[in-house]
Amino acid sequence: MANLAHFTSLTSDLRRALPLTLKSTEAERVNLPGMYVTAITPIVNVSDMDKSFAWFESWGWKKLWEWGTPASFGSVGCGESEIFLCRDGQGGRGKGTNTFTFGESETLDKGAWMSVWVDDVDAAHAVCVAAGLDITFPPADLPWNVREMHLRHPDGHVFRVSKGIGSAP
């Protein structure tokens, strides 16, 4: 938890300066003429499509589709969210030697970091523990009013599994 204390102290000024908005209303969104973004789909570089599909399925995602023989591109989904998987391309990957993903060690993994907003972080944690997944930060209530855990994909992508627990300080 020393790393969390370090991270918390580094971000205290930032938290005061930037209000946290987990979900914006239509009126709060900024739109450029001719451009209205309806969704963003991250693409993560994976070393093995079948193992990645199985990894996502082990914590509640569903394989939506795959392309190529053997598959070199595909998609997983959960709720209204989707993530594209690309074998050996479109971004970086690489698992660090770190066992904790906050503070100074958060740059050791070379994959993408994503926030995944869920209804129940502790239920997601229980599923991940039962599946034997790499949890690099257990569920905790954080000073920025989020309950969060970190889950690391075998290729070094880190998922911040989170739920808002109140209004920002």
How would you describe this protein?
By secondary structure, the chain is an alpha/beta fold. The chain is 21% helix and 30% strand. The chain is built from three helices and eight strands. Strands 1-4-3-2 form a four-stranded mixed β-sheet, with helices on one face. Strands 5-8-7-6 form a four-stranded mixed β-sheet. The longest helix is centred in the N-terminal third of the chain and has 16 residues, at 2-17.
What are the main properties of this structure?
alpha/beta, 30% strand, single chain, 21% helix, 4-stranded mixed sheet, 169 residues, 8 strands, disordered N terminus
Order of neighbouring strands in the sheet with most strands:
1-4-3-2
Helical content stands at 10-25%
Count of helical stretches: 3
Q: Element order, helices and strands? A: HEHEEEEHEEE
Shape assignment: globular
**What's the count of strands?**
8
Structural class, by secondary structure, is alpha/beta
How much β-strand is present in the residues?
Answer: 25-35%
Distance between the termini: 21 Å
Mean pLDDT equals: 84
- Uncertain spans: 1-22
Largest sheet: 4 strands, mixed
Computed CA radius of gyration, to the nearest angstrom: 17 Å
